Amino acid sequence: MSKIHYKSAEEIELIRLSSMLVAKTHGEIAKVIAPGVKTIELDKLAETFIRDNGGIPAFLNYGGFPYSLCISLNDQVVHGFPGTHVLKEGDLVSVDCGVILNKYFGDSAFTFAIGGVSEQVKTLMRVTRECLDLGIEKAVVGNRIGDIGYAVQEHAEKHGFGVVKELVGHGVGLKLHEKPEVPNYGRRGSGIKLEEGMVIAIEPMINAGRAGVKFWDDGWTVSTVDGKASAHYEHTVAVKKGKADILSSFEYVDNVLKEKNN
Ligand code: MG
Ligand code: MG
User: Fold this and answer.
1) Structure confidence by residue, pLDDT tens digits, 218-236
2) Is residue 146 a part of any domain in this protein?
3) Is residue 170 a contact partner of residue 200, using CB atoms and an 8 Å limit?
4) What is the pLDDT of residue 2?
């Protein structure tokens, strides 16, 4: 069992640089994601953009994962493979991206709607993003890890959605997955204390239907048991007194999507 690695202010700034490259990569994806695009094209774009900016795609070859992005469609929750699927109106696409820059990792995920999606899927996206924000609000000194999970779970379940339990958030630093685990469920006031220097990825994976998931024979893809949609948003954040410091950002992707919809 490895220990929690508490980061210095300098290390947190390095993780911010990595996380901001992830944020910009999501912005580049937002520019091109549309009906008619193959998901493998998004993977190539991300790999090229990350390398052009001096980074290394963190997921490529991680535990044997064969791509730079995890692209999870519709009922897929996480860890889907980019491929020959041609995006079409109504698809829900969760894109998870990691970068290594100056040896430090950054990790962030965003879920895109392709054209018009159902009202239920729109609500799922909104609520999952709210779950992320509510979890981040709890990532402050003096709280415990269970406070984050409680906030995420309470909000998702209030809307009748299922919280994935088999996969969790994690510490981020010189490794992609460090201690502690950051579950999207839990009890208030339970678990380890949150302290200055902790950098964690908070990443609610929320299902429109039941919470259960299945693991595919490809060794990676995770999908919902009931075939209903799933959404995933993730930020890398530093625990602080009073207010968490969000090291990644959705600003780039939000600006691109706003522009596209005008
Ligand atoms: Mg991720
Ligand atoms: Mg992660």
Assistant:
1) 999 999 999 999 999 999 9
2) yes
3) yes
4) 72
